[in-house]
Amino acid sequence: MVILLSFDEKYGDIVLNFPENELLIGDKTDMKLRLKKLVNYLVSLQQTYDIPKIFIGYEPATDEDSVLIEMNRDKANYDQEIEEVLAKTGH
């Protein structure tokens, strides 16, 4: 899985790669809690450092068919997207 912190062409991007089983392991309740904590942390980072977009997905994270959650500065609640991720990944 990939987390992409997308700035702009001048400052570039930060890409974090990690195995899917680090996030999507255990029962559905555990996975939902882990995803929610991760998303809340990323929302906090986004607001603090004025990051335009954050993508969570599979490589390449910005492709429509591989992005799981696309975060922008105008939204802070991603509960529906988290439910969709769990459904997409079969959990």
Structure characteristics:
four-stranded antiparallel β-sheet; 4 strands; single chain; alpha+beta; 91 residues; 35% helix; 2 helices
Summarize the structure.
Helices cover 35% and strands 26% of the residues.
What is the makeup of the main sheet? 4 strands, antiparallel
How much is the radius of gyration in Å?
A: 13 Å
Q: Number of DSSP helices?
A: 2
Uncertain runs are none
**How would you state the average pLDDT, rounded?**
86
Gross geometry: globular
**Helix-residue proportion:** 25-40%
Polypeptide structure, described:
The protein is an alpha+beta fold and 91 residues long. It has one domain. Helices cover 35% and strands 26% of the residues. The protein contains 2 helices and 4 strands; from the N terminus they run E-E-H-E-E-H. It has a 4-stranded antiparallel β-sheet. The protein is globular, with a radius of gyration of 13 Å. The protein starts with a strand and ends with a helix. The model has no long low-confidence stretch (mean pLDDT 86).
Question: Topology of this protein?
Answer:
Elements: E1 2-8, E2 12-17, H1 28-49, E3 53-57, E4 67-72, H2 79-88
Antiparallel strand pairs: 1-2, 1-3, 3-4
Helix pairs in contact: 1-2
